[in-house]
Amino acid sequence: MKDDTPVATLKVEGKLIGPWALELGTTWHDLWTSARQKSLQLDLRGVTYVDSIGSRILREIVSATGAEILSDSPLTQYFANQAASGAVLEQKES
Predict the structure, then answer these.
(1) Closest Cα to residue 58, out of 90, 27, 24?
(2) How far apart are CA 23 and CA 37, in angstroms?
């Protein structure tokens, strides 16, 4: 990550399931802390599958950071919609 870049990008690829989803859940906090002053882009263009744990982690990231989600196919747009709509619901319930 470049310090002069106004946007930090978190790129997620492959299957976001089980232990991999949990690992993303534990590591994104550290990444976000180091990029705190920047806007966040959540790049889902390489994601092929998301289980319920992965979906929860994506919603958590979007809810906490207001991340812009990048997608490029109907499948990744579906994952993006789930993450964004879940984040909106969580914010309304607060």
Answers:
(1) 24
(2) 23
Residues 6+ apart with CB under 8 A from 87: 59, 62, 63
pLDDT at 92 over 80: no
Residues forming beta bridges with residue 46, ordered by sequence position: 13
Task: Read off φ and ψ for residue 5, nearest 5 degrees.
Answer: -85, 125
Give per-residue pLDDT as tens, 40-82: 899 999 999 999 999 999 999 999 989 999 999 999 999 999 9
Sequence ranges of the domains in the chain: 13-93
**Topology of domain 13-93, per CATH?**
Transcription Regulator spoIIAA (3.30.750)
